[in-house]
Design brief:
single chain, mainly alpha
């Protein structure tokens, strides 16, 4: 039987330091094979060394410290995998957040809305009413006709002329001609 390594007689700091120097790499490799992420593997092994250091005085047979470390690495790797599974399951249940808007988008949208409202205010009264009821209140032609006391044909005519006037007035703001009416 070969003599025990020097770290068996050392205090906790010295013993863990010697174990670390001799076995860090192989323990990280072991954890990496289980968790498939180097950063996570390194954390698992570091946690195992911290645990061994904290329990050094309770280890009855210092020769079993390496076996204890290996067991701690395997258990730590399993724990991380379980945690990641729970995190992924929870993340899959969460709604996807809307895209983050740029800081300038709110200002541009506000300016565009102001332009639309200004152009709408310049329309003749009946066209303005029909456009507002159609695109802002989302009423049907029949509901608009009933609300304003005019025929459905008149609603179509006012809507068509009003939309054409708005497209012309807002052409510099639009990429989609019907876009201004739906804001």
């Amino acid at each position: 039987m070969s003599p025990a390594p020097a770290w068996h007689e050392a205090d906790a700091d010295g013993a863990v330091e010697q174990l670390y120097a001799a076995h860090w790499r192989s323990l990280v490799r072991l954890s990496y094979l289980l968790v498939r992420d180097l950063g996570t593997a390194e954390e698992v092994v570091q946690d195992a060394f911290v645990a061994v250091h904290g329990r050094w005085n309770g280890i009855r047979d210092p020769q079993s410290a390496l076996a204890y470390l290996r067991r701690a690495v395997v258990n730590g790797s399993r724990s991380r995998l379980r945690h990641l599974k729970v995190v992924r399951t929870h993340a899959e249940r969460q709604p996807v957040p809307d895209a983050v808007r740029g800081a300038d988008e709110a200002v541009l949208e506000s300016a565009r809305r102001a332009s639309v409202l200004e152009a709408l205010a310049r329309l003749p009264r009946r066209q303005r009413e029909v456009i507002a009821l159609r695109y802002y209140v989302d009423l049907s032609e029949a509901e608009i006709a009933e609300t304003l006391g005019i025929s459905r044909g008149a609603v179509k005519s006012h809507a068509s002329r009003g939309a054409a006037s708005l497209r012309e007035a807002l052409a510099h703001h639009l990429t989609d001609p019907g876009e201004a009416l739906h804001d």
